[in-house]
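Hi R.,

As promised, here are both runs. First protein below:
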Amino acid sequence: MGKRTHYTAEFKAKVAIAALKEQETLSELVHRFGVSAMTISKWKQEFLNGSSKVFEGARSAEKEDSEEEIQKLHATIGRLTVERDFLADACKRAGLKKK
């Protein structure tokens, strides 16, 4: 039984894009990349079916980044509020601030 070759996602995308460009025939792509015609056709179809996820992923990543940033900012606000209250109380006790 033959050995199975595992291709990287980058390589699959490169082959699929070359197939989509249609600048070379399928047999030329087979020779160029050393992958069967059936595999190239399969990768091309997978690429087309998953292409919308590229744009969804960007929004998800942006949303995740902004939520992470909001959490950090809330933590900073909380820390600064505690520090301000502590310093205001210390100033009152030292007689440096009225009220």
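And here is the second one, sequence first, then its structure tokens:
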Amino acid sequence: MTDLVGGLDPLIHPLPRLSICSALAAGPQWVDFRTVRETTGLSDSMLSKHAWALQEAGYLEVRKGTVGRRPRT
């Protein structure tokens, strides 16, 4: 875990990561990738990159599966 600076964790302080955390905090326990992408306005690649960093730090968990025949993240 990253050291706190002035009570803020610099890992989640960049705007894209803060946007992801805000979108997840406001919603239900699990939110699909598409919903987070639309809520934050991030591209697929940017959302994946920042979600991976947040997952590595333990802030979120990424689950992959399917709904019917369609993959879901």
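A quick note on the second one: The two ends are 24 Å apart (CA to CA). Let me know what you think.

Best,
J.
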